[in-house]
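Late entry, evening session. Most of the bench is empty. Finally got around to the prediction I had been postponing all week. Sequence below, unchanged from the version circulated by S.P.
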Amino acid sequence: MGALWKNTGDRLQQLLEVKQVLFLRQAPEADRRRLEAYITLLKGRKKYEALIIKYQHWSDDQLIKRRNQLVFDVQLRLDVYLLKWN
């Protein structure tokens, strides 16, 4: 059960990253700069840069498709987890 839960946690983390990149790309310039500064303050510049490098070649369509797949995958994992416990 622990492995399933850890895997779901990893998927949630990936989902948050994809959503964050989509938000960054779609945010107005001023908001994007503010958000970049906030992320730098909170998590350190390296994590932010790694996130951007990881997804910089992806189109918005690819990111949206990935996000949708992760949403489905996380939901499926949580459903399986709940089924096993009930």
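Two things to note before I forget:
Helices lie at 2-26, 29-43, 45-55, 60-85.
DSSP finds four helices and no strands in the chain.
Will write this up properly tomorrow.
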